[in-house]
Amino acid sequence: MEAKQLYAEEIEKTISGVKKKEEIEGLIEKPKFEEQGDLAFPCFVLAKQLKQAPAKIAEQLANQIQASIFSKVVAVGPYVNVFLNRAEMSKSILSKVLAEKECFGAQSIGEGQVLTIDYSSPNIAKPFSMGHLRSTVIGNSLATVAKKNGYQVVRINHLGDWGTQFGKLITAYKKWGNPDTIKENPIKELLALYVKFHEEAEEKRELEDEARAWFKRLEDGNVEATELWNWFKDESLQEFAKIYQLLGVPFDSYHGEAFYNDKMDGVIKELENKNVLERSDGADVVSLEKENLPPCLIRKSDGATLYATRDLAAAIYRQKTYQFSKSFYVVGHEQSLHFQQIKLVLEKLGYDWAKEIEHIPFGFILQNGRKMSTRKGRVILLEEVIKEAIDLAKQNINEKNPNLVDKDEVAKQVGVGAIIFHDLKNEKQNNVEFSLEDMLRFEGTTGPYVQYTHARACSILRKAKFGEVSSPEDGLDDSYSWAVLKLVDHFPHVVERSFLLRDPSKVAKYVLELAQEFNKYYSHVKILVEDEQYEARLALVKAVTIVLKEGLRLLGVKAPKQM
Ligand code: ARG
């Protein structure tokens, strides 16, 4: 158990019933200086209830608390500071990690509850953009973190497979498209058509009308339009599947926008029956004037439904199908208004669960300081980027470890890991600058650095020729071990925080810190000397491999044993 929890338990016992353990735990601090102790409890929070001066309480508590995991308990003014018995703590931490293995750190806050998470959700017939990469990577990590916190997670890819853009694409295809070139290189050619449409439409406004007409035909089930749409969709899905395969990202559902076509009428009826729909300039809207927001557009004057209408249907469907207790949408922050509107409309429909819908926004990926845009064709094609990263990783491996078996697989894990890690190490609200060289460095704050540290720890264990590292009988009390152990002990807390803050960067920063601390340990401590603490040191190395690997897994990054 984490030191803080153990301390909280001791305090709870001592003050019997005045405050709960959980509350006490939240109050425990770290003293400013290490010389003052490892943990501090501020007694002024008890002053009112105990009707005593904080310093007095501190003194009494310090006298009463006794536990083998504390080497010293002292009152410092209004605080009770404890010094941990590091040798004892080290044994308890290590045996726990070695016993629980990859289950170490699991939490139960989500037990018995379903969480749906909508992420990636790229648009058909457009390239998988860097923005969708962010959603994919952040969503995948959050889903994994949620599961580790006990949730039953449903991963949903809400494909953008419907909307006026298909009218544009069909128009462009009929004017300038060629089936053979598209079959050869579907996404690239479809993008070229899309870009050309927008260029031409700047001059020729009537193109927009044609596009609207084609979309209307598609909505009405016109055979030619539907066939083209199906074809674009198949080609796109095949391309996306390659990317998900490379990234190692799974989904439970691919119900995209088109899936809700037959549910549109139902939603509109419901909006009408519950009196929330209004006419405005020939269109149907839900007014959000009281909430100081622009109205939510439900149906255009030509009868076409919108992105928002589909999201309303999707939310209702998800609640019916999965009975979620939380529902996440990992989508760029430019859609904040959209999700605010969706939630409010659902509330107006009387759905209590609407408050459990959460938009989890993130910043843009920038290229030389500029936002990437599909319309202008200013995009990097993701598959090419991933392949380039893998190639670079392979060059690196060829230089550093030319005899490595499984080179291709490891290069893939390192190249892909680098991209994912680079994205997740920043707080997700920030915009991220995209630079392959930066993310592939083996030193500094990169994925490969953490992977490399894990591989180094694995290689120590191989050299030790230990079949099974077991719980140590001797404790470790030097400061290098302690720095590592404290972090290992902290992992469960990081798992929980990362979920509560909806922020994978908490995990990314944590594994970086653990890797750095472990490398310090490695360069100062002779691990493979056969003295009394030999087993204990190996147990520590083993625990580090377990936690680094599990931390990387939570991010969606693989941890090769050698690299
Ligand atoms: N396809 C949309 C886009 O690329 C994202 C969809 C997000 N999910 C949702 N349920 N609206 O902008």
TrEMBL record:
Task: Provide the top EC class.
Answer: ligase
Q: Motif 'HIGH' region: which residue numbers?
A: 122-132
| Protein keywords | Aminoacyl-tRNA synthetase, ATP-binding, Cytoplasm, Ligase, Nucleotide-binding, Protein biosynthesis
Biological processes, Gene Ontology terms: arginyl-tRNA aminoacylation
Q: EC number(s) for this protein?
A: 6.1.1.19
Q: Which residues form the Arginyl tRNA synthetase N-terminal domain?
A: 5-84
Tell me the Pfam families matching this sequence. Arg_tRNA_synt_N, DALR_1, tRNA-synt_1d
Family affiliation: Belongs to the class-I aminoacyl-tRNA synthetase family.
Query: What is this protein's record name?
Result: Arginine--tRNA ligase
- Origin organism lineage: Bacteria, Bacillati, Bacillota, Bacilli, Bacillales
